Amino acid sequence: MAEGDGEGQTTGAQSATPDVFISYASPDSTVAEAVCEALERAGVTCWIAPRDVTPGASYAGQIIHAIDAARAIVLILSQNAGSSPHVLREVERSASKRHPIVSLRIDQAPLPEDFEYFLNTSHWLDASNGDTARAIPKLVSALRLAIQTPVVTPASTPAAHTVAPSTNAPQKNRTAIVMASLIGLAIAGFAIDRLWVSSRRAAPNSVPTAAIPVPAPAPAAPAISEKSVAVLPFVDMSEKKDQEYFADGTAEEILDLLAKVPGLHVPARTSSFYFKGKSEDIPTIARRLMVAHVLEGSIRKSGNHVRVTVQLVRADNGYHVWSETYDRTLDDIFKVQDEIAGEVVRVLKISLGADELPRGVAAQNSEAHALVLQARFLGHRGGPDDWAKAVGYYQQAVQLDPNSAPAWAGLSKALAHIGLPFGGLQTGRLLQQAREPVLQAAERAIAIDAQLAEGHEALVLVRYYFDWDCAAAEAENEKIRTLDPAHTNALAFAGRFAALRGNLGGALALTEQAAAMDPLNSNVFAILAYCYYPLGRLTEAEANARKAIELSPTMPGVHTLLAQMLLARGNQDAALAEIEKDSDAGFRAYSLARTYAVLGRRAESLAALALVEKNFASNQADNIATVYALLAQPDQAFVWLERAYQRHDPLLVANPPITVDPDLKSLRGDPRYKALLHKMKLPL
Domain 228-349, what fold? Predict the structure, then answer.
């Protein structure tokens, strides 16, 4: 740092966005000032203390702000710097912000391990012979290169997250689709499923059309409450970079605590973690999440010791309202989370009684807690084998701590994920075998802690998807909303139940509330597109479908969703082109058959449908039935609906459920339709 005492006078403070922050220990001030002068002569703007510190303002606060604003860091590296805790903190913060660090080494003293860890990939220049002036040209070149080259992290590399779909593996793709769905309401996050990904839900005579698409009007910018904060994923600063799950989990648990504070707006995890690995700055993040403040931090874990560094940032000016570093043992991590949440509440001046302050429930076993965090991390990642691995971690956790309600609830949801009949592969006895362990784990979680929403979420899955007992599922969902009125997933499922009863206006209102809590969840916008669609509000439907694509362009089914909206608005060429962009082969094939049916191109629809039956019959029975309904072939439609029923296909009760599916409108007067609803225990 500039470890000055803060008494120096400002001699023309630099821009709020300097090229370089100069970090140094006080005994090296002469070298640091000379380097600063040389860099500025070369046109590189610098921030250096005490020169650029405003007298009377918070010294530490200005240091933090300057580091965050700088585009690169110059470290005057020496024995003095190596022994300075101030310099170490500056280097640690710079690394957490992923700023390029260019070190100018002015002696040969060995560095402490902390410095070696943070600087092992940074640019080094050697001036240890005392001739600093000769190193300046190289320093200028290195800085210009660092400033011009964006930092790319593994998390931001598209290939790390995108897997090309296989046309020979429709079941895997179908599972991915449904797992992004409201089945994933309590499992993986939220709501995509048939409510939108089916891309099919309106017969030509059920939705008004318009020949010329009209762009959606720009909505008025909503007011942002001062009592609002987004919790960003914490950065893993551990030596081996193997604690990402712990960093994510700690941030998520703090988010959950703050979300329970009355009067405080806290975006849901899906939206706050959307920016993980991305390069957006704080003002942009806050604007997109519609918050006034952002809480960010880092975790450094070693053995039983953990260091948590957090800072609360005012989004509009970047001012650090509060920051703190906690050095504790793992057994104290819940106390740290409580303290952080309590400080945020205090700083934002939210009036709460002592008994209303957010407090978590400490785990009895820190090893079991770590296993739960690892399992959650895998669940959020959602790869092909991740849920099976998550089950293993949860099972280890309940063995270590049989009274851990979060572990039992997580186990229930993970078992549900791998046990639900995706693609119709689980039938009869196999389905019941999958149901029992899911139910037992959910009931165990609730018995331990009836106030834990996650346990009730797991039970909603059992009652709705395994039992098709909508009344019991809705009652359980209302318990979640009583515990947490702003619970995003419970709001979404409440919208599902409203749609099930034919209340599309109510479904829209509840989904809009969910969108306000989770403003960057692509699945929410997809559901909104469907909610607007059958109401004839096609401009809003298309706008929300496009928003879903903007947020998740490779999500299976999202392009066929937009194709459906374009088709309803009379733009068939654009609709057909959009279908080809979808990442899922099964949805592309089905959507093509549906599109031809809507357009009245019967022969082409039947030909396309034959290919769907040949290649995707195991996981498209419900979709195949709807195309036959559109083609006015009710006998064939009921054959495929019965197949879906026998296979206990969860898409029958997904969005839109068969009670309100516009594509099935032609079947509703048939006695077989009412008989099917009756045996599924659905409202007529």
Answer: Rossmann fold (3.40.50)
* Phi, psi for residue 98 in degrees, rounded to 5: 60, 35
Whether 176 has a pLDDT exceeding 60, the answer reads no
Kindly state the DSSP code that residue 232 receives in the 8-state scheme. Answer: P
Q: Per-residue b/e over 78-106, b at no fewer than 16 CB within 10 Å?
A: bbbbbebebbbbbbbbbbbbebbbbbbbb
Q: Which CATH number fits domain 20-152: 3.10.290.10, 2.30.30.520, 3.40.50.10140, 3.40.640.10?
A: 3.40.50.10140
Distance from the first to the final alpha carbon of the chain: 71
Q: Name the 3-class secondary structure at 177.
A: helix
**Where would I find the beta strands (DSSP E) of 467-523?**
none
How far is it, in rounded angstroms, from Cα 640 to Cα 621? 5
State yes or no: pLDDT of 168 exceeds 90: no
Q: What is the DSSP letter of 228?
A: B
Q: What is the pTM of this model?
A: 0.67
Start and end residues for every CATH 3.40.50.10610 domain found in the chain: 228-349
Please give the pLDDT value at position 358: 65
**Cα separation of 368 and 359, whole Å?**
19
Question: Given 1.25.40.10, 1.10.1200.10, 4.10.410.60, 2.40.37.10, which CATH number is that of 174-197+204-217+454-679?
Answer: 1.25.40.10
314-330 in b/e burial notation, b at 16+ Cβ within 10 A? bbeebebbbbeebeeeb
**Structure confidence by residue, pLDDT tens digits, 560-576:** 999 999 999 999 999 99
- The helix/strand count (H/E) of the chain reads as 29, 10
Task: Quickly list DSSP for 40-62.
Answer: HHTT--EE-TTTTPPTTS-HHHH
| Tokens matching residue 511 | 């989904």
Q: What's phi and psi for 314, nearest 5 deg?
A: -80, 120
Contact 545, 558 (CB under 8 A): yes
DSSP states along 633-684: -HHHHHHHHHHHHHTT-GGGGSSSPTTT-GGGGGGTTSHHHHHHHHHTT---
How is residue 522 written in tokens?
A: 């692509």
Write the pLDDT tens digit of every residue in 621-666: 888 999 999 999 999 999 999 998 888 777 777 767 788 888 899 9
